[in-house]
């Protein structure tokens, strides 16, 4: 049994946010979408939302941002739990079958209508379908998608390897899809050709060695947001190096570092075009003993909140 967390009134823990009240306007809404049944790799990713919620309580909501100003660093402090109204809508039930997926999308659409940002906790990458559909709602033809992922996710069939293809078939314009972090030895010629033929913008993993991350994020937002509709972001944690994300079945050596994915999450959430973010492909039961992958997923929630607070000028 894990030891109980210490209590210090001067160091309040985050997480454990309340459920939303009827018709309440909020800043950030969290919802679990525990998809796992169609995973191409053996996975218990349905257990991850609860693990992430537990991991959130290891952290505070205190943020210090440093901006270069006249050659000197200017610090700004934010306490997210004071600056933002954050709610937790619980988990969707059985989101892997057709009915459950539709109900999950409807629940996310209701949250998106009364929040600035919806953060969906997976679950494997199949959750990106209901998450993006819910965020887009009736504006799907004008919406955009940004993925941070080692994989194209354009496979045939219905699995955690097919969400991007399924969203395109549902009406998302592939010219407003940007895939960041696509890796060698993790895809195939057939699916790369499919991405090219569809007009998907692909930013290969190697480009992140050579270009500033802020420039890549800016380019992705301009492409995904070109239709004037909402942008959904898929943070597939298997884009990270395997040493960072051993709890992701498909992570490989040579991926992003934790600080890169955390910074991307904050930058993306800081843009008003982004209305939804999902955190995918973490299997809490396959994590390292120190829980590093689940803890990274929890920090991605907080980075998204920090970006939102900066967006809102809090």
TrEMBL record:
Any coiled-coil regions, as ranges: none
Pfam families xrefs: Arginase
GO MF, one annotated term: metal ion binding
UniProt signal peptide: none
GO biological process: L-histidine metabolic process; putrescine biosynthetic process from arginine, via agmatine
Keyword Hydrolase part of the UniProt annotation: yes
Keywords: Histidine metabolism, Hydrolase, Manganese, Metal-binding
InterPro entries tied to this protein: Ureohydrolase (IPR006035), Ureohydrolase_dom_sf (IPR023696)
Family as reported in the entry's similarity comment: Belongs to the arginase family.
Name under which the protein is recorded: Formiminoglutamase
Organism annotation: Leucobacter chromiiresistens
